[in-house]
Amino acid sequence: MGEIFVDIRQSFELNFRVLAVFGIWPPDSIRDTWKVYIYYAYSFFAVNYFFIGYLLSEIIDIIMVFGDIEKTVEASFLCITHLGQLPKVISFIARNHRIKRIIDQLNDPIFNRGIPEHAPFLENSKRIVKRDTRIFLFLSSSTVMLWAVFPMLDKTISNWTLPLKAWYPFDAMKPVTFQLIYFYQISSVLVDALSNVSKDTVASGLMALTGGQLDILRYDLAKIWPRTQIADKTSNPVTMKKISYNEIKTTEEDKQMTKDLIKCIEHHQAIISFIVEQEEVFSIGVTSQFVAGVVVICITAFQLTLVPWSLYYFSMVLYQTCMLVEIFLYCYHGNEIIVKSSMVLDAAYETSWYERGTNFRQILDIFMTRCRIPLQVNAIKIFSLSLTAFVSILRSSYSYFAVLQHMHNK
């Protein structure tokens, strides 16, 4: 059977298309110097107009109403989200070449050898990344659309009102001015939401692809000793079939098995380096997102207790869902890396090492010693991305929510 090459870069086609439109990611098609300068000028305008300008109006509005809990909460939930997004914007603009290099690594021979048996694992990882991106984009755009229409359809609102709170140095309620500000708010928030989702699903998507590489590693370890079967049909969408061969006794075959084991070790080392590279590039952005997420989940829950049942209420429920999904994607895929890397140790142990030569057993023993420490993605070395971290965030948010509600009831 011939080689089957799976282009991993296609996992992020939608992400980079969105980011390119909004001035955060230079398209690969732009090669001429003058076109590059034009795009950078557009990027400077887009980021300042849609993101920095709107963020400043939110910050000033919070300062103007500070002291009133209800008004401060109403003005701050989206502002804190945007503040958490700021390090990610800077990271993607300043480190776009490094991010491209990380993604290109997934097409290197160590990760993508064109082996037909590996293709289902790679395709499944790509499918997960694309699924997460599409679902998250749909949720975020639906939230913004509800914010856009609720002032016009919500019967609980009697006067003209802007969909979101922000400060402007002029009267925003004049007819023409109101319409322009209305459009500016919705367009800015939509651009910020879609670009933020695209950045988040690049980072979480790389973790999902790392999990796919760990599946491939387990499969290759299983092939070293064909009688090994390391997974059942329910644990992975790709069925790992048990292969029956005659017992391996000759010295030449033992040497070949040792070479196969060394290839698996090299693959494992490459995965470790790949995770370290992800941490160095995305760690600050992920940490800022988690810190902002704790606060935003808290104040959004508090705001839901203040507003009546209305279209705006449902838009805030959807917004809260987006925040939970955003953090959950990081934690879920980070947890999958921990679980799958732990299963690599089991796969190595099941290679019938006791029937192999001394050299094979010594190499395997060193490899298994390293595998005793599960791989994990850390956020600036403070905490690892896992389901445990997700639960801790929910608990922290609830604690702050209880304090905020107590202060309001006084």
Automatic annotation (TrEMBL):
<feature type="transmembrane region" description="Helical">
    <location>
        <begin position="173"/>
        <end position="194"/>
    </location>
</feature>
<keyword id="KW-0807">Transducer</keyword>
<feature type="transmembrane region" description="Helical">
    <location>
        <begin position="281"/>
        <end position="305"/>
    </location>
</feature>
<keyword id="KW-0552">Olfaction</keyword>
<dbReference type="GO" id="GO:0007165">
    <property type="term" value="P:signal transduction"/>
</dbReference>
<protein>
    <recommendedName>
        <fullName>Odorant receptor</fullName>
    </recommendedName>
</protein>
<comment type="similarity">
    <text>Belongs to the insect chemoreceptor superfamily. Heteromeric odorant receptor channel (TC 1.A.69) family.</text>
</comment>
<keyword id="KW-0675">Receptor</keyword>
<keyword id="KW-1133">Transmembrane helix</keyword>
<dbReference type="GO" id="GO:0005886">
    <property type="term" value="C:plasma membrane"/>
</dbReference>
<feature type="transmembrane region" description="Helical">
    <location>
        <begin position="311"/>
        <end position="332"/>
    </location>
</feature>
<dbReference type="Pfam" id="PF02949">
    <property type="entry name" value="7tm_6"/>
</dbReference>
<feature type="transmembrane region" description="Helical">
    <location>
        <begin position="37"/>
        <end position="56"/>
    </location>
</feature>
<feature type="transmembrane region" description="Helical">
    <location>
        <begin position="135"/>
        <end position="153"/>
    </location>
</feature>
<dbReference type="InterPro" id="IPR004117">
    <property type="entry name" value="7tm6_olfct_rcpt"/>
</dbReference>
<dbReference type="GO" id="GO:0004984">
    <property type="term" value="F:olfactory receptor activity"/>
</dbReference>
<dbReference type="GO" id="GO:0005549">
    <property type="term" value="F:odorant binding"/>
</dbReference>
<keyword id="KW-0812">Transmembrane</keyword>
<keyword id="KW-0472">Membrane</keyword>
<keyword id="KW-1003">Cell membrane</keyword>
<keyword id="KW-0716">Sensory transduction</keyword>
<feature type="transmembrane region" description="Helical">
    <location>
        <begin position="382"/>
        <end position="401"/>
    </location>
</feature>
